[in-house]
Design goal:
Helix content: 10-25%
GO molecular function, one term: metallopeptidase activity
Structural class: mainly beta
InterPro entries: MetalloPept_cat_dom_sf
Oligomer: single chain
CATH class of the largest domain: Alpha Beta
Largest sheet: 6 strands, mixed
Order of helices and strands: EEEEEEEEEEEEEEEEHEEEEHEHE
Keywords: Signal
Shape: globular
Radius of gyration: 21 Å
Mean pLDDT: 84
Amino acid sequence: MKSMAIFFLLLVTGLSVTAQSVTFNADRYHYDNQTLLLEGDFGEWTNSEYVAFINQSGGTVSIRAHIHHHLTFIYFVDSENHADHDISINIPADGQYTLRVIAKLSSGSPVVYNDQLGFDLTYQNGGTGYFELKASAYFHARSSSGLNTPLSKPDGYGYIGYGYEEVSSGKPMRWDKSDFPLIVYSNHTRFGYSMEYSAVVQKAMNVWNSAGRSIGLNANIFELTDNPNNADIKMDWSGQSVPQGALGVAMPGRNLIGMLPLSRYSGLGAAGETLVQELGHLLGPVHSDVRYDVMNGTAHGHWHDLTEINLTERDRQMLSWIYSQADYYPFGR
């Protein structure tokens, strides 16, 4: 596949400091399921992430925060600055508490850990509950030049090479880090369901922005504009450029993404997964041959809503590999 006509399709088949917000009501609790992104050098503390607990239950809520047994490098820090793997918190009625999460790993090879942190709940009336929050920790070593030591390229992943060819060896094409953020224009405001379209667009950009932060990029990868004249990347929701049998198309040589009208997807999750993949192609990766990578060339169908969509460890590793290569062909604007 060559130059400006290269297409990447999703086919139809079966940060800076981040605050996660958890609200407790009398009969339920709600959280926005943001991934806590921890990133730093081996032997040093990572950035801090925060979980804000808001008690609207009418009584005291007791919370026990704990890690899974293999995540011994993750710590909870209480209000007195004590760090532990297992801490308990009592939040009075109408009270709030912000829990700090941080990590430290002494040595090893550059790696991304994706897992869950556990929270046991006990209400004043005797009721109990349990939920988990996603955490992603990325550790890297520093070379004498001060650059991140790159993760290896995951097996079964292709990328864009010189002339916009799909390759699996040689120099990759990618953006220079100084090009970020890439400014995105989406024409979804021309169609109905504007809030739903906006949610899909913002979620897809946030997935890559969060991944970029977790691998050490200092700026967002994507930012949205309402002025097409200012855009580096344009997104069209008319469906006119999407080939029959596909859910979306990316054209890296033209910095264009084609999507179907929202009503033609099986839900916001399906639209969001499609858009995450098409945006990913514009960053350099092509398809993975592992079924459950987001960048696999087929639709998974297991994303029920937007909050569940996230990259796999392999997807994040591929992004890290591409953007740690010193020898590359730059994308032009």
